[in-house]
């Protein structure tokens, strides 16, 4: 069940990167969107298969997304939504990592 948020974030990040590229021809948008989306997908796969470090990968992807979207949060609804989603995902996966380590 814990893999579902990771796969959802993977899809959102990937689609967001593609849309950002389609609108502005921004190569960093598509690279970042697909890269962070791939990290979430890989973490979700590891969680689904019961392998180690899936939660940590998802927490790291959330941290990266939050760090890149928070400075641009006031520029519009997309960065604000990314900031909110990455905050929620980081809280969720950070708690999972914390609980697992205790």
TrEMBL record:
Cellular component GO terms held in the UniProt record: membrane
Keyword Transmembrane helix found: yes
Keywords: Membrane, Transmembrane, Transmembrane helix
Domain of life per record: Eukaryota
Compartment(s) where it occurs, according to its Swiss-Prot or TrEMBL record: Membrane
Main location: membrane
Family classification: Belongs to the TMEM14 family.
Protein's recorded name: TMEM14-domain-containing protein
Biological source species: Meira miltonrushii
């Amino acid at each position: 069940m814990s893999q579902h948020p990771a796969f959802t974030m993977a899809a959102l990040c990937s689609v967001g990167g593609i849309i950002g590229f389609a609108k502005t021809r921004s190569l960093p948008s598509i690279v970042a969107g697909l890269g962070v989306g791939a990290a979430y997908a890989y973490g979700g796969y590891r969680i689904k298969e019961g392998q180690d470090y899936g939660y940590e990968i998802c927490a790291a992807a959330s941290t990266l997304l939050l760090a890149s979207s928070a400075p641009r949060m006031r520029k519009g609804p997309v960065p604000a939504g990314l900031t909110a989603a990455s905050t929620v995902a980081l809280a969720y996966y950070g708690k999972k990592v914390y609980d697992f380590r205790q």
